[in-house]
Structures are given as structure tokens and as C-alpha cells.
Design a protein that fits this description.
Elements (H helix, E strand, L loop, with lengths): L16 E7 L10 H16 L3 E8 L3 E8 L8 H20 L1 H4 L19 E4 L3 H13 L20 H6 L13
Antiparallel strand pairs: 1-3, 1-4, 2-3
Helix pairs in contact: 1-2
Length: about 180
């Protein structure tokens, strides 16, 4: 039986690099707001500093994130991906309660286990099993903001919310990226 390369967040193997995509419910542009992007960065930074993950590349787009990361330790009994989703959702809710109640209603859920849902269920996790696939996904993530649909920057390294400037000029503003080449 062949292993499905598209795994759920709780099924990522430790010490394996993944291209991971998590998307905001309804593809709404929640992450257009820089304060909410910082919540994503803060969560990733915490997971890096507590040795739960290694991040090799990332981009935060208005309605999704792409990460190239490796799980190295559980966060208690929880996967780092689960911790990331839970932490960011709680912080998004708190931010919107304080700053934009109208937008918060866009994320109301009729599920019995939650009042709000920000991330779609079942993020995409693709194991990266070769340098070629790794570099292809890293380029894909870095060029996402300059694509015509988005046009968020004129070149990848000028988009603040990406690891492109790290690989282009050694700049890691948020201190979360590990060079895959080392």
C-alpha cells in the first residue's frame, strides 16, 4: 500500500521536512492585517525557540501561509502544527474582539466544539523527499507574493512576510529561519 503524501497536521512525521499550507476559512483575507501576521510570526518564533520546529522557509499571504518546516518535538501531547493553529486562532479571536467585532462574526462556527473557526480543517502537508522538491516549494512560496493575482511586492526579497530576504541577503528580521543548506 502506497503512503498518501498529503497528510493531516497531526500525522506529520518528526525529523521530516514538509511543505505545509494552512488556509483561512472561506479564503477570507484575514492576514492582510500586519498585526495578525505578527501573531503568526509570534507563534512560529515561540515554536522555534522552544525547539518544537525548524523553519526553512515561509510566506504569510493575505489568506494563507506556506511553511517549509520540520517537527522536532511535540508540544506536550500536541503536535507543533496543532499548537500553531490553536494559538493563532485564540490570538486572532482576541485581536478581533478588541479591534473589529464585525469581522469576528465572519468566523462564527456552528460546530459544537467551537464558537469561531479561523483555519480550514486539514491543512496540506507534503513531505519533501528530495532537494529538487524542496527547492521547488521554497521558490513557489517565495514567488507567491509577486504573482499577478497578489502583486504584494516587486520581487520576493522585498516582501517582508517571507523568508526570501533571508536566502537572498541573509536578513531574518524575525529570527525564525534556519538555512536548509547547513
Amino acid at each position: 500500500m502506497e503512503l498518501n503524501p498529503y497528510l493531516r497536521q497531526g500525522q506529520m512525521d518528526h525529523l521530516q521536512s514538509y511543505f505545509y499550507t494552512d488556509t483561512i476559512m472561506g479564503f477570507k483575507p484575514l492576514l492582510k492585517n500586519d498585526a495578525l501576521k505578527m501573531i503568526v510570526i509570534d507563534s512560529l518564533k515561540h515554536l522555534v525557540l522552544t525547539n518544537k520546529i525548524i523553519i526553512y522557509g515561509y510566506v504569510i499571504m493575505p489568506n494563507h501561509v506556506h511553511l517549509i518546516w520540520e517537527m522536532i518535538n511535540l508540544n506536550g501531547k500536541e503536535s507543533p502544527a496543532g499548537s500553531f493553529a490553536k494559538f493563532t486562532a485564540h490570538k486572532f479571536k482576541a485581536y478581533l474582539q478588541a479591534n473589529n467585532l464585525a469581522e469576528l462574526t465572519d468566523y462564527r462556527s456552528n460546530k459544537s466544539d467551537r464558537k469561531y473557526q479561523f483555519w480550514k480543517r486539514d491543512p496540506l502537508a507534503i513531505p519533501l523527499t528530495s532537494e529538487k522538491s524542496f527547492l521547488q516549494k521554497l521558490d513557489y512560496a517565495h514567488y507567491n507574493p509577486v504573482e499577478g493575482k497578489w502583486s504584494l511586492a516587486d520581487c520576493p526579497e522585498n516582501y517582508r512576510w517571507s523568508s526570501a530576504s533571508f536566502y537572498q541577503g541573509g536578513i531574518d528580521e524575525f529570527g525564525i529561519v534556519s538555512d536548509y543548506r547547513l
